[in-house]
Every structure is written in structure tokens, then in C-alpha cells.
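Format notes (please read before filing issues)

Several people have asked whether sequences and C-alpha cells are stored in separate files. They are not. Every record keeps both together, in the order shown below: the sequence lines, then the C-alpha cell lines. Line labels are part of the format and must not be stripped during preprocessing.
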Amino acid sequence: MVTIYNGKTKLVMKDEASGEHFLFFKDDATGENGVFDPGSNTVGGSVSGKGRTAIAISKYFFELMEKNGIPTQYLDADIDKCLMRVRHVFVPKLEFVLRYFTAGSMCRRFSLEPDIPFDPPYTEVTLKHDEQGDPLISERLCIMKGLLYEGEYQRAIDLLLKVGSVLRVELDRLGLTLIDFKLEFGFDEERNIYIADEITPDIWRIKDASGNIPNQVECAKMLVSALGIAT
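Then the structure lines:
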């Protein structure tokens, strides 16, 4: 097994013998100086067992998406080893963001108060580039930079909205309000599109019944309990 890419919370790995690809979920969490924040571009620290919890939650939500006809990169998972077997896809350096309420960077960038609802939900696409602060990027620039082909930007947005509909209903069932989330998408050789990477509290911001916004570590504990997920 060789490491192809070392990310903040995961490794992308390949089994050279079989040619299969895997994601290894680390115990690291994004944030700064021990304060965890799913919207951060740096690693804030590690939590023992976070990788096992994250892969178990991601497995649950990937399988939920598949049941709802939404294609994913996920194939299967070994929770004990924190390894998820995935389709080999090209994942452009883009993040697709869906917002149901104002929060986080949007409030800072546009001088908006938090918790203003969007109807319909608000979509953004950002370039994954830590040094440049993950700037917003348009369809035209995605095509110009060779990140996407014509029409794929809108295909990804359409799939993002479908994911949001399923995710929002499931979290609402648990008494949680989805504020916003971000996804990565991958493409196979035929340019079929799939949800890539993960679906865990590392990609979203939620509010509980008391109006609190838990960080990704706290949210993961809530989900494991509420869904009865074995980790």
C-alpha cells in the first residue's frame, strides 16, 4: 500500500498489487490551537478514535445516498483499519458549498449577520488552495484551468442540491438543523460524476435543538449515539 496524497484528515492510498484505491481516516481534526472547526484550513489537533468514528459515519451517509440514487465514490469500508475502499476517480481541486443559512466565512466576506435563511439554498464553488484562502471560482475559470469540462459545473451543482435534500431530511429527523456543507466530486474515465472524499461532520455545520453549533468532534459523538453506529 502506497500513499498517493496526504491530506489534513485523510490519506489517499493505492494497493499496488490489486490496483485498488483507499482512503485512510486519520484522528486529526481541522481547527486552530486545539479549537476544532470544520471550516478551518489547518489541523487543530488530534482526537483518539476520530478516524474510526469518521469512517463509520461516512459509511452510513454514503450508503444512504446510494439508497436515494445518488452515485458515490464509496465501495466498502473496514472500520477497524479506518480504510475505505473507493472508486478510482479524478477529483478536481474544487469544493462545492451549499448554504441554507448565513454562517462562517460568508458572514466575514460579505458583512452579513449569521443565521439568515436562504430560500432557495445558496451555492458556491471554491478553489482548494490554502495559500490563496480557497477563493470563489466561476464555471468559466474552472473550464479555463482545465478542472472541469463544459457542463460539468452545473452537473455538480445539481448533484449537490440532491445531496442537500437527503442530508437535510436525515439530520432533521435527528433533531439537527443543517446550516451548510461542502462536497468534493470525482469523475471516472467516462466522466461519470460521483460524490468523493467523505460525508462526515468535517464537511458540514449544524445546529442542535438548543440552538448550539457543535464542532465536528462533538457532532460526531452525537451522531454515533443517535444513529446507533458501531465504531
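For reference, the curators noted about this record: The chain has a mean pLDDT of 95. The longest strand covers residues 117-127.
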